[in-house]
Amino acid sequence: MSLNVALNNALSGLRVNQSALAVTSTNLANVNNANYSRKVLVQETQVIAGVGSGVTADTIRRNVNTLIQRDFREETSTLSSIQTENNYLARIQQMFGTVANKNSVGDIIDNFSAALERLGSSPEISSNFFTAINSATTLTDRIQSMANTVQDERIRADQEITKAVADMELQIAIIAEINGTIPGQSAQGLPIGDLEDKRDQAINTLAKYVDIQYFQTEKNQINILTKSGHTLISGGFSADLSFRQTTLITANESYPAILDGIHLNAGGNPSTANDVTSGMGGGKLESLFKARDTILPAVTNQLDQMAEKLRDEVNRVHNRGANTPMGKGTAALDPATTLGSRSFSNTAQTLTIGSDVNMVLLDANGAMVGGMGSITAGATTPAAVQAQINTFLGANGSAAFDANGQLEIKLNSNVRLAFKDTGAATNGGDSILQFDADGDTVDESYNGFSNFFGLNDLFVTPQLGSTVPAVAGQGSQTGISSGIIVRADLVDQPSGISRGSLSGTPPNYALGPGNNDVALGLAGVFEKNFTFSGVSNGPDTTSTTLSGYAGVMLSYSATVTQASDNSLAFQTSLTGDLEIKMQNESGVNMDEELANLVIFQNAYNAAARVITVTGEMLDTIIELV
User: Fold this and answer.
1) How many CB atoms lie within 10 A of CB 377?
2) What residue stretches are annotated with the Flagellar basal-body/hook protein C-terminal domain (predicted)?
3) Spatial distance between the Cα atoms of 78 and 531, rounded to a whole number of angstroms
4) How far is CA 257 from the centre of its chain?
5) What one-character DSSP code corresponds to residue 413?
6) Does residue 178 contact residue 45 with C-beta atoms inside 8 Å?
7) FRET label pair with 426: which of 19, 71, 362, 610, CA 20 to 30 Å apart?
8) Which region, left, alpha or beta, applies to residue 436 given φ > 0 means left and ψ of -120 to 50 means alpha?
9) Which of 371, 296, 257, 374 is nearest to 92 (CA)?
10) CA 162 to CA 166: how far, in whole Å?
């Protein structure tokens, strides 16, 4: 009986050590596979009828520390979030340029200011006209480029969200499929370690996109939820995620009005009820939405403020000048000599002018042609003002409102039109106009008659989402930085830039070639402090120059980016340490496996030797019988 026990023990040892060698060989084959967890053959004493009968090993266990694994996934989610945000912040910081390289928008503003100063010092030198307009064009081109870059980055974020959602759906499907397979495999006594490795890999990938919580069921299935409690996987069930990518994004487009969010189990009918965007916290996905809907729009807000202040303050001074273009003719098909930038939906609306506004016609040399006209102070309407201008022009031109409600003035080719406000000197001579431009039943104040109608603007902004142009106090100001330009006829003919205002005593005015008060006033705009409102996820309210605000934007961007760099460095180190610990726990150690290989080989040989000795003893017994 004892020899049979010895033989059975030895045979079980052969089988178990053979299995252990197979497991070891698999471990060694995957020694460089980061997604593989070390497998261990669990050996137990075999007991039959209360008597030890060798060894059995039916279970292959993965060597995984689930606590470290859970910590690693949480920190991976945080790291992915910081990395994604840092990438966008770094690109925005690069867009702003650097002070050291003299390529920041503040440097370009300073160049424009310097060009205006040269124009003011020497208004008779024609090259100064070109330099000033070229500098202005360079500035608007740079502002437009920055604004367009911001929208391009929003499109990039939207595209990355699409890819992230598609990959999340893939990983969710993999996990759900494995969840459905594992119970059957276990019931048949088949190994499931490699399936669990593949599931862990999918869970790790999913954790990069969103902060998850999960638990293991008694059937060894993993159920996964978002931190806010939305079920992504329950056993073999997988949730359906959907997202609609937007191919073109403008500054006026925002979530959820136009841009889409993440919808859960929408069944092809996305709605507010199944929008779970706010519940997809943590991970790459959260930072992508933050970049698209918060960080980048905040940059647009800053650029729009700068563009709006640049437009309004420069135009206010430029409209004091008398350098309106020479007439282009008064035939029906002739282009307008002057087209106001403000649009009137109701030309009969009340307009109050604070002081008289004088009108004169000038020849190419700046001398008056004919007598002076006047628009008297008091309550009036845009239509009445248009009629007065039209009457004054007589045979020299005409004034009318075009189809968009903008004041259009046509002049004979040998004259140009100039306006002279008679307001207080403390206000730069501007007349103060009262008009409800935004339709809120409260009148707003505007400085300067020509400035109010936009008859001699230097900078103009496009129409945004409607037929109403974006001008001071009227139309949407969101996104004007993407379209601010120098007035087209000034680009074509830089000599039209305002250098001086009418001089003389009414009714005798003139514009001499040396007049430079407007040019000096334009340069002075860049020396004044203006109040810039605080921006959510941007700089606080500040009072500074136009160039100074460009510096504020750059400084804020640099500060935020540096803080993100520091967070990224810390999180990368923390996550890396956890990954090393996890690999030390679950990874394959070649030295250890080679040592085990020798142990299992010796154990196998020993078991074989026991069988040999037992066989010899049995032969001896048989011979004795």
Assistant:
1) 17
2) 584-624
3) 37
4) 17
5) T
6) no
7) 362
8) beta
9) 296
10) 6
What spatial distance separates the first Cα and last Cα of the chain, rounded to whole Å?
A: 16
pTM over 0.90: no
Q: How far apart are CA 428 and CA 316, in angstroms?
A: 10
Cα–Cα distance for residue pair 96/145, rounded to 1 Å: 10
Q: Give the single-character DSSP code of 295.
A: I
Reference 557, options 92, 181, 51, 1; nearest CA is 92
H or E stretch at 434 = strand 432-435
Q: Which residues contact 234 (CB under 8 A, 6 or more apart)?
A: 223
Q: Are 238 and 250 in contact (CB under 8 A)?
A: no
Q: What b/e sequence results for 87-96 when a residue is b if at least 16 CB atoms lie within 10 Å of its CB, and e otherwise?
A: bbbebbbebb
422: which 2 tokens? 């008679």
Q: Read off the tokens for 125.
A: 């030198």
- Residue 463 DSSP code: B
Element (H, E) at 57: strand 51-62
CA nearest 77: which of 168, 174, 162, 157? 168
Bridge partners (DSSP) listed for residue 44: 56
Phi and psi, residue 23, nearest 5°: -65, -40
Tokens (6 digits) for 212? 């998850």
Report phi then psi at 48, rounded to 5.
-125, 120
Tokens of 302: 């800053």
**Phi and psi at residue 395, to the nearest 5°:** -75, -10
Strand, coil or helix: 31:
coil
DSSP assignments along 327-348, one per residue: P---STTSPPSEEEEEE-S-TT
b/e map 30-66, b = 16+ CB within 10 Å: beeeeebbbbbbebeebeeeeeebbbbbeebebebee
Residue 445, beta-bridge partner list? 434
**pLDDT tens, residue by residue, 498-553:** 988 999 999 999 987 778 899 999 999 999 999 999 999 999 999 999 999 999 99
Q: If you average pLDDT over residues 404-415, what whole number do you get?
A: 94
Q: Count other C-beta atoms under 10 Å from residue 234's C-beta.
A: 16
CA distance 624 to 395: 146
Q: What is the helix (H) or strand (E) element at residue 25, kind and residue range?
A: helix 2-29
d(CA 68, CA 577): 11
CA pair distance 90, 561, nearest whole angstrom:
6
Report the SS3 class of residue 371.
coil
DSSP assignment of 581-622: HHHHHHS--HHHHHHHHHHHHHHHHHHHHHHHHHHHHHHHHH
Residue 445's pLDDT band, with cuts at 50, 70 and 90, is: very high
Residues 6+ apart with CB under 8 A from 109: 139, 310, 526, 546, 547, 550
- One-letter identity of residue 613: V
pLDDT (average), residues 260-280:
93
Query: How does pLDDT run across 471-489, given as a tens digit for each residue?
Result: 988 888 999 999 999 999 9
Model confidence at 264: pLDDT above 90? yes
Is residue 230 classed exposed, middle or buried when 0-12, 13-18 and 19+ CB atoms within 10 A define those classes? middle
- Three-class SS of residue 272? coil
N residues, the chain? 625
| Three-class SS state of 359 | strand
Measured in whole angstroms, the distance separating CA 361 from the mean position of its chain's CA atoms is 50
